[in-house]
């Protein structure tokens, strides 16, 4: 099916500035690769498509060039770049030993800010490169004294503050393995994740800020510690300045001030390229969350590529990306340090009631060069009439945006209300690879509603139902050659069966991610939504994101969710759920306005069967709409088999949609005459 977005060679919404493109790090990399690696076809360093083609046809040459460009400091050299090109099971850089933490700390200017800590009140403090090294060395020595060694697990129950960054780097420096989640998770939900890992030490905070309130998490922290029987100690962070109770966690406790106040020297432990660095968890909407294990070397190279080349980060730059510690974007924020740039942490709501544009204010005050957010945030700013440009955003050159599809309407809003030269870089990737599959670069044009291109080193394709690559048609997002940051394995998956089932059963030897995409004739990528939430009307596949994009542009609609549910009698029900903006009412006039917008902006096939107002749309903790779980609830699946309530931003919505589905099934149930069984 040809997507309604596809048009022959459309004019880009934004072209890269030629001087800025030629002076970017990705252009410098292309020049060096052509000179040193003989990158075939790369004659113009600003020709992104030629560079990408080389990066996926010569994987070994490309990743060797990344290694050399960023001067990877290995204790022992690698024998070959890619010893086995298999998926799963690719063997990258065998023989090499290195350490992620060493690279995160080595290029920091001793007197320049390595981390700028921000919060929703507008408060800020800085940690210089020298201070960060000292803090990491101290916490690493404390962890070592508590029995942490290579391969042991250290877990964090922490907000997005420098404490989490320091604890992670200290853990990585020892060759131990890190995992973290935010404190909006209940202790039981956090324990569902962490107990699988049998951690040695827990690092936890007294609370966090959100929407004008100080959330006390002391009791929750101690409950979590009690639920982790393998702990040897708990490190207690005084973030909000709340006094920890005299009755503390079972086992020894260490105040953060003591853990971080020692005078120590850190010598990071060299580990093999594929030694575990961290464990990130799936959203856990169905069953126990899966622990996804990534390695030191794969993350190091992948994040240097995406941050140093695609985001053009380097010494003197600052990145502020709104995230929580349990979203993969936190991992990328930490990796800002790899480039020598300043990482900004932020504790609080993205739009607190008292200061809803605080993120723009902070970006201006701290001369942020790359600002990261979600499509929902940009749409909310537009609908509420905020003008980010009232702040001095002259340092800002790009806005990264991920978490869901960025609607085309966001692009002119950024141009008109943030800055005409600011690149809106829509990115799509996943926790699974803790990176992106497609996005932008300083050398790529931008088409509104589209991702500019596949990322370097990502052999991206759209497969049709027969497993053939297609262009200008909707297909499954697949990656046909390995990436260094593909998971080493899943935790507690000794035979690798869960890992294989997650990505490699549909197309053996090819990564299937679970998204519908279109790769256009001009090389861009359009994301239509999750393929397992596909709308399939009379055999025609429709992307839910195409409908969400159109409906959420309407001022009366705060958010939308469309579902396609197969019914027992062979029917197909495609309702559109809308969350109304303040003051709006769902009458027939608004319903017809919605239907007309969908009919005009997409096609008559996209028009829903019903439009229903709901109090809210359920999301994962990282902000992704729960399309598949809502579909299953509407079809009558028991809630406890559909998703874990602790993984939902508003668990009360589970019962709401289950009840809605039950009411519809009762209404459709055929009447049984009396006396007939």
Overview of the structural elements:
The protein has 677 residues and is α/β, with parallel strands linked by helices. The protein is 30% helix and 22% strand. The protein contains 21 helices and 35 strands. Helix 3 packs across helix 4, helix 5 crosses helix 7 and helix 8 runs parallel beside helix 9. It starts with 17 loop residues before the first helix and ends in a 9-residue tail after the last helix.
In short:
With about 675 residues, the protein is α/β, with parallel strands linked by helices. Helix content is about 30%, strand content about 20%.
Strand order of the largest sheet: 5-4-17-16-18-19-20
**Radius of gyration from the alpha-carbon trace, in angstroms:** 25 Å
The residue-averaged pLDDT reads: 91
Shape: globular
Oligomeric status of the shown chains?
single chain
Structure classification: alpha/beta
Strand content: 15-25%
What's the total count of β strands? Answer: 35
Poorly predicted regions: 1-7, 670-677
Cα-to-Cα separation, first versus last residue: 46 Å
Give helix % range.
Answer: 25-40%
Number of distinct helices: 21
List the helices and strands and how they pair.
Blueprint: H1 18-22, H2 25-36, H3 48-57, H4 59-69, E1 82-84, E2 91-92, E3 97-98, H5 100-106, E4 113-119, E5 124-128, H6 129-145, E6 153-157, H7 162-173, E7 177-181, H8 187-194, E8 201-205, E9 207-210, E10 213-216, H9 218-226, E11 233-237, E12 253-255, H10 256-259, E13 271-272, E14 276-281, E15 291-295, H11 296-310, E16 318-321, H12 328-335, E17 342-347, H13 358-365, E18 370-373, H14 375-384, E19 398-401, H15 410-417, E20 423-426, E21 428-430, E22 435-439, E23 453-454, E24 460-463, E25 474-479, E26 489-490, H16 497-503, E27 511-519, E28 525-530, E29 535-537, E30 540-542, H17 544-551, E31 557-562, E32 565-566, E33 572-573, E34 575-580, H18 588-601, E35 610-613, H19 627-635, H20 639-642, H21 652-668
Parallel strand pairs: 4-17, 6-7, 6-8, 8-11, 11-12, 16-17, 16-18, 18-19, 19-20, 34-35
Antiparallel strand pairs: 1-2, 3-13, 4-5, 9-10, 14-15, 15-26, 21-22, 22-23, 24-25, 25-27, 27-28, 29-30, 31-34, 32-33
